[in-house]
Amino acid sequence: MPGGRAARSVRSVTATPTCSTFGPLLRQWRTRRRLSQLDLAVESDVSARHISFLETGRSQPSREMVLRLATRLDVPLRERNQLLLGAGYAPEYRARSLDDAEMAPVRAAVDAVLRAHAPHPALAVDRHWELVSANAGVDLLTRGVAPHLLEPPVNVLRLSLHPDGLAGRIRNLAEWRGHVLGRLAREHAVTGDPRTRALLHELAALPGGRSLGASNAVAVPLRLEAGGRELAFLSTVTTFGTAVDVTLAELSIEAFLPADAATAEAMAALVAGGG
């Protein structure tokens, strides 16, 4: 049938074992996704024997097969390039600088989203939570923060949990730490990125405790002291869902919106009073 012919067209011929790094990388991603060789084979429309041969180096994958398996394993674009390189192929996905002319529409879109959230804090970050851009509302978050935490590159998670950062102003610090560390741990589970793991270990070692929060809550709010009052925000994250550029795929925008009417009123008052 058509599906069968397509599957055979991208399968690889059996070869003698080589020093290719593709096999070990494929095994890492498969185990990270908690899939057996049979599970991956079924989802990729190949045989379990072929998956085994690819992982041991007895078969070399075609370029199309590498991309098919990477898609089934939901491998991030940066790591898909590594799989291709490991199999001896050129990378598929570019990683343009945000300053490139081709990225002008992206910069415009990010700026538009950040402006639209004002006066509420909103910021754009890269894969490792380093600040890319922010709106004026973020000034509310950075007041009183130690200068060394604001030196580029600014890591916004370190900024939020460090004792010299926002930690002293976060009223539900243990709960917020639990949220941040849990999110970072999930990201590491998805990507396997060593810098993400290092950041997770660094932040976990900071003081402040860790709590799962109330079981009956809708979401974990950020409860922040500002101007002698407590403000409560809900965090939302926006990504570019159709990205085929590494930089764009790793870019996200986090906005902090009022979690209650009192915060909405307080924000309006802060804006009216000039902060």
From TrEMBL:
<dbReference type="GO" id="GO:0003677">
    <property type="term" value="F:DNA binding"/>
</dbReference>
<dbReference type="InterPro" id="IPR001387">
    <property type="entry name" value="Cro/C1-type_HTH"/>
</dbReference>
<dbReference type="Pfam" id="PF17765">
    <property type="entry name" value="MLTR_LBD"/>
</dbReference>
<dbReference type="InterPro" id="IPR041413">
    <property type="entry name" value="MLTR_LBD"/>
</dbReference>
<dbReference type="Pfam" id="PF13560">
    <property type="entry name" value="HTH_31"/>
</dbReference>
<feature type="domain" description="HTH cro/C1-type">
    <location>
        <begin position="26"/>
        <end position="80"/>
    </location>
</feature>
<protein>
    <submittedName>
        <fullName>Transcriptional regulator, contains XRE-family HTH domain</fullName>
    </submittedName>
</protein>
<dbReference type="InterPro" id="IPR010982">
    <property type="entry name" value="Lambda_DNA-bd_dom_sf"/>
</dbReference>
